[in-house]
Please model this.
Amino acid sequence: MRPSLDLIWIRQDLRLHDNPALFYGSGRPCLVLFTWGDFTGSGEHTSVLAKAWLHAALKNFAADLDHRYKAKLIFYPGTLLEFLDNIKLVADINKVHWNHAYTPAGIERDTFYQTALGERDIEVDTHCGNLLHEPWEIQSKNHAFIEHFSPFQRLYFDQLQHRASLDYPAHVRAETVKGVNYGSLKDLKLITDQKRYDDLLDYWDISEKAGRDILKAFVKDRLQHFDDSCEIPSVQATSKLSPYILWGQISIRWIWEICDSQTGGEEAKTFLNQLLWREFAYYSLFHNPQLIQEPFSKDFQRFPWRSDAGRLEAWKNGQTGYPLIDAGMRELKQTGWIHNRVRLVVSSFLVKNLGISWQEGAAYFLDHSIDADLALNTINWQLVTGCGVDSYPFSRILNPISQGEKFDPEGIYVSHWVPELRHLPEKWIHHPWDAPADILKRAGLKLDENYPRPVVDFHASRTWALDAFHSMNGADEIYGTA
Ligand SMILES: Cc1cc2nc3c(=O)[nH]c(=O)nc-3n(C[C@H](O)[C@H](O)[C@H](O)COP(=O)(O)OP(=O)(O)OC[C@H]3O[C@@H](n4cnc5c(N)ncnc54)[C@H](O)[C@@H]3O)c2cc1C
Model:
């Protein structure tokens, strides 16, 4: 007899715990499927690093499914539609379960499947799996789009309550069906650079268990000090959960519940706000999908961005001559991750001191971050530029020297990532070009030989940026430097 099955379509929800699609789809005989072809078609997560992370995450997710439920994950290189067309030779699929996607390409894909599956008489069962709330459920009083974080946050705390997280499914009744090719992870060809993959595994343990262990350790040791130390890049004060959240290896609701339950949630407030910024980014992109390319503030379409390949390369390679910028960009290149404060400083520098467009920076980050998230990346690049929702004023131009002195006063972070500077005294580490010749000599530093002089003068470039901003729209802002 032909088996009659449900299908659980796994995407960016590589976890067993609080996974609504898995939870609600696993009660009947089912198949659990991952289709790589639906990602390649969307152009998302195609960087070497993203694919490497995905490879390791899928490997561990499949092992967890097998270990806990004796259930197999099907690795399919093509699309869901191709899979359904193949499987109909040996089995009937009644219903497909998935958790919602929110990027423009993800929404387009899921809308297409809603129709395509309907035409094949296959039911669809979809869930909110990766956000606290659906972006379309968040409504201001007058139903207008909420452009600022504070009213969004107020609305959230006053009116919205997310549903409680779900437990692990009791069973996953995944069938082994004769005639179905279960494939192998290798068929997806996700590792395109073995060395980068091996390097990634040196820095990260890419499993659901690791995500939960990180959360546990963060809550135990760091959450109550988060407010005091989350701005210091040399200490591990933040959770470093971003890549796990991106791939749904940990549930956002679970993170919220665990942190909110700590002594009434007070000590977790700053951290919970970070999670709300994530919700705000998704909400903003959902209602304004054009933001991936276009600034929220239309005036910025007239901004006279520069095209300067040499400066862009210096920024990408951590060779700008500004130690904090170079440390951040080298950390990104090596590990795929940077601290939020450093992301703010390097992005401000690219846009406002090098005069290179936020789109160039955002594309580079997407290509080189292991937590490359279209919503968070887009909204934050626009915020730093001053052209997005709830943006900084354009005139807030972060000075890499004073930011370094404030957030890395002993130069610990800079010395780690820019070892050429490690023998310089603290006093000079954020502006080595000002150090007297004998100090440079003792530190083994030869400017323009083993470390570059600044690629631009901070003050001159700041003046250029402010003039460019004024020429764009004649705005009457108060100049200021952070
Ligand atoms: C220019 C720029 C680009 C960015 N691109 C990304 C990106 O592609 N992917 C990404 O995950 N984050 C991005 N961020 C936001 C932030 O830098 C990272 O989320 C954070 O550094 C991740 O470290 P963490 O997990 O230790 O954060 P924690 O401080 O521990 O915060 C926990 C979680 O809250 C969310 N969060 C924290 N800060 C922000 C924020 N400013 N905006 C929205 N959500 C936030 C993230 O999901 C994060 O993992 C970007 C920030 C900037 C300034």
Observations:
- The two ends are 71 Å apart (CA to CA).
- Residues 1-128 form a domain with the Rossmann fold fold (CATH 3.40.50.620).
- Residues 230, 238-242, 245-246, 274-275, 277-278, 281, 339-340, 343-344, 347, 365, 369, 371-373, 376-377, 380-381, 384 surround flavin-adenine dinucleotide (CB under 6 Å).
- Residues 345 and 403 are 8 Å apart (CA to CA).
